[in-house]
Amino acid sequence: MRFGTAEAAPGELATGVIELGHDNILPLVSPVMLARGALPGPRLFIQCLIHGGENVGPIAAARFIRSLDLKTFKGSIAALLVANPLGQRAHSRLTPQDGTNLNRIFPGSPSGSVGEQMVDRLLAIAGEHGGDAILDLHSGGELTITAFYVIYDDKFDGPQQRASKALAAQIGSRYQWGASEGWMDGTYLAHVSRTHGKTALIIESGGGARVREEDLANFSTALNGAARALGMIAGDPPVASDIRRGGNAVHVKCTKGGFWDCLVEPGQDMVAGQVMGRMVDLYGQVVEEIHCPTGQAWVGSIRRPWMPLYSGDQVVEVVERL
């Protein structure tokens, strides 16, 4: 079995690279891992770092894969560890060369900008190697801190969407978000599900320019849960309690610049009008209070506390509670 330059026989772990595009000197490549169990079984595909700086995902994926007992493991896992090498080098969720957010421009174009060409390539790789399920790992990046949540495509009621929703309930997160908004149409998640017919999830935890053991543990729970749900390893998948369903999200922005004094935590329940934070100027004066704009909700993500922000910057993402 091959994935890029990695080749694994039954019971083996292999590493290598796969080509995603070209810069002005050499091909753009991503490190890859390929774990093949001694026993036949499903194929799981993991993608990391479509947004540069979201470093929890690849660290957690590599730890998880190296923890597997391949003598008893059923099936295979292919991990694409750096889906956006240009963004990762710049610690940026965007691709600096063309300013694109790769996770908003799918399906891309083989003759477009460098970001559009990488997206076209990522979608082709998912079609070839995606197997039975795809997990797209995120972690807030340099500026944002997220709850431990899972997103599945909820715009259509097809077999892939139903299978994705079922898998979302088996990774151990209480925040289960069925997204149907317009921004989803340009995402990797939507296209691997709708174009390639894959069971697919976004899994997110952490961020804020840090890697915490708590977030690594969340990803470990999620990855083990997915493998158990697929029958790749023994045991029952984790089932969270006190579930928070998610619908559409509201991206709340400040109207005054200053320092962001955040008063809420990722995952916190909110009600309309509740104060979520304050903008504080250099004189120490509160120049704006930020309130929850929607009825029953939970906090999907926050901007890193005490960051200096411009007017119009996003400060909180609140997710409609269903």
TrEMBL record:
Sequence ranges assigned to domain Succinylglutamate desuccinylase/Aspartoacylase catalytic in this UniProt record: 40-226
Any Pfam family the entry gives: AstE_AspA_cat
UniProt cross-references to InterPro entries, sorted A to Z: AstE_AspA_cat, N-alpha-Ac-DABA_deacetylase
Needed cofactors: Zn(2+)
Domain of life: Bacteria
UniProt keyword Amino-acid biosynthesis present: no
Presence of keyword Glycosyltransferase: no
A Gene Ontology molecular function term of the record: metal ion binding
Endpoints of the signal sequence: none
Keywords: Hydrolase, Metal-binding, Zinc
Name the record gives this protein: Succinylglutamate desuccinylase / Aspartoacylase family protein
Source organism per UniProt: Falsiroseomonas stagni DSM 19981
